[in-house]
Design brief:
6 strands, 4 helices, alpha+beta, about 20% strand
Length: about 160
Amino acid sequence: MALSAGAVDGPRLESLSLLLANVAEEMGATLRRSAFSTNVVDRLDYSCVVCSRGPELLAQAAHLPVHLGSMDTAVASALSEFPDLGPDDACLLNDPYRGGSHLPDLTLVSGVRLEPRRRPVWFVASRAHHADVGGSAPGSLAPARDLVAEGLVVPPVLLV
């Protein structure tokens, strides 16, 4: 079923909205349960979203709001580099000029298909703060004159 603004009534739209928000919440719960980092487990420094093919932000979990403002741009950057990104793929990035927030926040983007052999219907992304990504001081938070001095800049890279 193709979704368009005129084809979806209020109750169906609300149901879909709640379903996608729940997907983002469950993504976060899984991320927290599987993490080793105290930044994720204890500080809850992560966020998860569901985006359309557009990519527009469709749903977000109530995690860390500061991550969410550029999440759709990160998904767009991943898709511009890897237009065939699917559910078996994972694209990693942290570049602030491509939708990242700051270097210790690494973003992972994947596609979601509803049926085999079809292109992704949605994209999911998660962003989590990592303790150190290099740079001139421990914690990747030292004053720097340029981006590279802050740590490792990861453009969209296909991991899987």
